[in-house]
Write a structure and sequence with these properties.
By secondary structure, the protein is mostly helical. The strands form two sheets. A three-stranded mixed beta sheet has the order 2-1-4. Helix 8 packs antiparallel against helix 9. The longest helix is centred in the middle third of the chain and has 34 residues. The radius of gyration is 22 Å and the shape is globular. The termini are far apart.
Length: 314
């Protein structure tokens, strides 16, 4: 570092989708609409699960926490992105950037863990139905969810501390929708190999580990389904897993494309589009997926609408 003139970075300048300034207002309205749908859909799902006794099962208990995590991690990203679009850029302090990175990593990790837990729940329900009540007790469900929060917090804390002990100097422009790891690493200077190894190791304990649990769970589920003789029985059993599989494909598909691929030569524009998918679109679609593809949720919605209509009558 001696003899080289570096300006230490204490704040970052965020800008996104600047290639077409005329898209600013339409994108602002689209993302605002998606965010409102996300809040209403996930909050509605949480309320529905709490109010309807038919949904007081382990799967919907986990789903309510998934909806809560979706609300939180979308709220960490989207309001600031709306501000960036409205102002054509925004300055963010390093402390605020670190806070945003920590909260996003925390809630995104919880999403990963919860999707893995829900896959295990489906495995027990399909492959060991007689043991389901004894395996997935209320105490066990609380323990699994608490473990997801503790693991998410621990991993996010270590990754944030490690990332922000790196030296940022010179360029402070982030052409991205929020303070995420890939654009931050592009702004570092000096030796960062040790920190990057720590960050990657902790990332491996989250996404690939959760994907492995999901794949193993569904491998056993598929084997169990294939042993069912009637086609109707196979279809009915698989339908109980369809919503979860769709949510898993959406969430992990975009994260894998963003973080586990070779990013050399990839355009920042493509990265921005993918990041919108997992921060804006996926949290919005999750309650819709579980509403449209799940018989119990549809029945609970119709029951709730029926009660609202009844009490609204003069």
């Amino acid at each position: 570092m001696a003899g080289r003139n570096f300006t230490v970075v204490t704040e970052f300048f965020l800008f996104v989708f600047t290639e077409h300034p005329e898209w600013g207002l339409p994108l602002f309205l689209v993302f605002l609409s998606c965010y409102l749908v996300t809040l209403l859909g996930n909050a509605g799902m949480i309320i529905l699960i709490r109010k309807d006794r038919q949904l007081h099962t382990p799967m919907y208990f986990f789903l309510s926490h998934l909806s809560f995590a979706d609300i939180c991690y979308s709220s960490v990203i989207v309001p600031q992105m709306l501000d960036v679009l409205r102002e054509h850029g925004a300055v963010i302090s390093q402390a605020r950037c670190a806070t945003q990175f920590f909260l996003f990593t925390f809630f995104a990790s919880i999403d990963c863990y919860l999707l893995a837990i829900m896959a295990y729940d489906r495995y027990v329900a399909v492959c060991q139905p007689l043991l389901y009540v004894t395996v997935m007790t209320e105490k066990d469900c609380l323990g699994l969810v608490a473990g997801a929060y503790v693991a998410g917090f621990s991993g996010a804390f270590v990754r944030t501390v490690t990332a922000f002990t790196l030296s940022f100097c010179g360029n402070n422009v982030i052409n991205f929708i929020f303070c995420d790891l890939p654009p931050l690493l592009n702004l570092t200077c000096g030796e960062s190999h040790t920190q990057e190894v720590v960050i990657i190791v902790f990332a491996i304990f989250v996404m690939p580990a959760c994907i492995l649990v999901i794949l193993m769970s569904y491998l056993f589920i598929i084997v169990a389904i294939m042993q069912i003789r009637s086609a109707g029985g196979r279809a009915k059993t698989f339908s109980t897993c369809a919503s979860h599989l769709t949510a898993v494909a959406l969430f992990f598909g975009t994260l894998i494309f963003m973080y586990l691929r070779d990013s050399s030569g990839q355009s920042s524009k493509k990265n921005q589009v993918v990041s919108v998918l997992y921060t804006v679109v996926t949290p919005m679609l999750n309650p819709l997926i579980y509403s449209l593809r799940n018989k119990e949720v549809k029945e609970a919605i119709m029951k709730a609408l029926g009660r609202s209509k009844y009490f609204g009558e003069p």
